[in-house]
Amino acid sequence: MTKHKPLSILIFCVLAFFQRESFAQVGDRPFLGVGLRPEVRAVADRVEGKTGRRIYAVFDEFENPSTLGSSFIGEDGVPYLRVNPNLRAQKQKLEAVIAHELFHLRLRAEGFPVFLFAPTVKTARGLAQDVEQENVNDLTSLIEHRIFKAEMDALGLNRLVDLAGDSERSAERRRGSADGQAEALNFARAVLEYQTSADVENLRRIYARNRWHRAIKKGQEIADLIKGAKYAAPRDSVAVFRLCFAKLYPTPRPVKLTPDASVKTYRQMLISF
Description:
The chain is of the alpha/beta class. It is built from twelve helices and nine strands. The protein has helices at residues 7-10, 14-18, 38-51, 91-109, 128-131, 133-147, 149-154, 166-173, 181-193, 197-209, 213-228, 234-248, and strands at 22-23, 56-59, 69-73, 79-83, 114-117, 122-123, 126-127, 256-259, 268-272. The longest helix is centred in the middle third of the chain and has 19 residues, at 91-109. The protein is globular and about 50 Å long. Mean pLDDT is 90; it is low at 2-19.
């Protein structure tokens, strides 16, 4: 659901939406116009307790209009949460998206890291931060979605945000393009997050017609790694990320994950080789 840019870059977007209508989580008051159920409000309270700052929540337009929400902790330590304004009138779906982003923020506040290509990593198409970072962000999101899946399911919220069809439409549009990392991640997302096996099989057929056989194989392997892991602590998500990254970017050189000392308000790890 969430498409993250590198979090150190996203902070520069803050001033752009500071001028819009905003609501912070305060006690039992509505959150972006929604009265959160106690279990979801407890997640917001946890985020604010860990960060020592109020959540800054806002309806805001996204570059991709299909994006439902995003969230991050800024360099000022404030937890930010953005929601697509098209959800204003869809109260149940709005609560599901808010909860989803609050779970991401809780992980961030509890030390689960984000990952960013080091500025020294280059590809044939340019700096990895510029041309490959979105794949890393998507992989991180897949892992985090798995961590809080059981809680979202228990609240009945995942069924309100059905992703089936998104990857199919994208795959149809991109027929004839390379069998790459984005395709593998989209297939992994379907395996992990689609609500029926029939929808997964429909995507598999489209991939097969597109001759994206490597993406099917890699996507399934990544999904199996994410699904089979235990996530008791941030180090567990780091270990799974490392394994999945090796599937996504096979290289003879070992992957190095280094804490980014320049970021103080959340954990960021730099990827290098």
